[in-house]
Amino acid sequence: MKTSIETYSGAMDTEGRPALVAREELVYDAATAQAINAAELAGTDVATIRVIDDLVAALLAKQILTEADLPPAVHDKLAQRRAIRSRQ
Question: Where exactly are the structural domains of the chain?
Answer without folding.
Answer: 2-43, 45-86
